[in-house]
Amino acid sequence: MTQPISLEAALGRIEALWSPHIVSQVNDYDVRIARVAGEHVWHAHDDTDEFFLVLDGELEIALRRNGGEDAVVLPRGSVFVVPRGMEHRPSSRDGASILAFEPTGTLSVGDRHDPVPDGVDVTTGHFLL
Ligand code: NI
C-alpha cells in the first residue's frame, strides 16, 4: 500500500455480495471490506477473533453463546469482535458495507460452517487491484 485508498471508491468496485476484498495488510493481518445483504452462514473461526467495523448500513450478528442464541445489532460506525470459536451468522436485511480485520488466510466461512449456499464466496479474501 503505497497510496491512500478510498474505501468508498473501493466498495464501489465490488459487485459480489459477501465477497471480502483485501484493501491492506498490517503485519500478518488483512484489512478486508465487503458489501453484504441477506444472511451469511453460521460458522466459527477456531483460531482467531474477528473484528467488524460497519462502514455503512446496519449489520446484525447472530451468536451462539451462554448456552443460547442471541444477536448484536451494529449500526453504521459500530465495532464488534466475535471471539474465537464462537458460532456466528452475520446478516443485513437492508444491506451494509463492512470492514473486517483478521489474520491473513482466515476463511470467510470459518473452519466449521453450515452448508454454503450458492452465491456465498468461500474465500480467504480477494486482492483489490
Ligand atoms: Ni466469521
Description:
- The structure is a single chain.
- The chain is mostly beta strands and 129 residues long.
- It has a single domain, classed as Jelly Rolls, CATH 2.60.120.10.
- The protein is built from one helix and nine strands.
- It has one helix at residues 7-12; strands at 21-26, 29-39, 43-44, 50-65, 68-75, 79-82, 88-103, 112-113, 126-127.
- Strands 1, 2, 4, 5, 6, 7 and 9 form a seven-stranded mixed sheet that branches.
- The N and C termini lie close together (11 Å).
- The model has no long low-confidence stretch (mean pLDDT 93).
- The site of nickel (II) ion has 5 residues, from loops.
Outline the secondary-structure elements.
Elements: H1 7-12, E1 21-26, E2 29-39, E3 43-44, E4 50-65, E5 68-75, E6 79-82, E7 88-103, E8 112-113, E9 126-127
Parallel strand pairs: 1-9
Antiparallel strand pairs: 1-2, 2-7, 3-8, 4-5, 4-6, 4-7
Bound molecules: nickel (II) ion.
Nickel (II) ion (NI) binds next to loops.
> Which CATH architecture?
Sandwich
Beta-strand proportion: over 45%
Shape: globular
User: How would you name the CATH homologous superfamily?
Assistant: Jelly Rolls
Bound molecules: nickel (II) ion
Question: Which descriptors apply to this entry?
Answer:
129 residues, mainly beta, Jelly Rolls, seven-stranded mixed sheet, two-stranded antiparallel sheet, 1 helix, 52% strand, globular, binds nickel (II) ion
